Amino acid sequence: MLKKISKESHNSELSSLFTSIDNAFKDSDLSTDPILKNELTAFRQRLPMFIEANGAVRINKYTNDLHIVDKETDLAYVAFKSAVNAHSTIDDPEIADKAEELELLINGARKDIHRLSYDIQFSSMGKLINKMQEPKFEILIDDLGLRILANILIKRYNKFAAIYKDNKTVSADIKSVVSATNQRKDIIDIYNKKIVTYINRFVTDNRYSSEIKEINSYIDSVNQNIKTRTTRRSE
Predict the structure, then answer these.
(1) Least-confidence region, from 26-35, 179-188, 193-202
(2) What is the pTM of this model?
(3) DSSP readout, the chain?
């Protein structure tokens, strides 16, 4: 079942989520499914103005560099996370236990962080990097032979963080458009009421199983953010 987008999502979360939904279907063959093709077209037509209005795309001298270092950091993060996961499956209790400690650290910082917005990556991945450099975790990393991958991740994150901060300090050249808040309802409704309803009710085979799995993973990440915010407000 394809999950719906919560209307409690922040605009910054929606920018990443909308783009992820778009990307999930980018290489899908919709030639035999004109209904979904039309619904996705309507969804995609509204994305550029929302993302621009939300300030997700800031046009300045750092924009291109930020995109590049973000991708480099994402790849380093996935490589490190995958190596940790691989060690946790080794049939050696000592190795597996150490890897599982690192997995808990990664999961605590949101394991799919590389799919989220620049703001969230900067904050949450920064906290993960700081924890990785504590003596306890440095020992685990060295014991598992993951020092090279860890150093690459740290180096690339630091580069990303520096450009991210520079990007924040300059004025954004964003055109005057309808506010993101005013646009978000239409896009959410197209997804929740049309795309989700169509796929869940009328697509009876597994042709979109990979796309559904990918999108649901993104939505779960945002829902976890919402749950965390709700818990903090109630405390």
Answers:
(1) 179-188
(2) 0.51
(3) -PPPPPTT--HHHHHHHHHHHHHHTTT---TT-HHHHHHHHHHHHTHHHHHHHTTSS--STTHHHHHHHHHHHHHHHHHHHHHHHHHHTSS-HHHHHHHHHHHHHHHHT-TTGGGS-HHHIIIIIHHHHHHHTSHHHHHHHHHTT-HHHHHHHHHHHHHHHHHHHHHHHSPP-------HHHHHHHHHHIIIIIIIHHHHHH--SSTTHHHHHHHHHHHHHHHHHHHHHHHHHH-
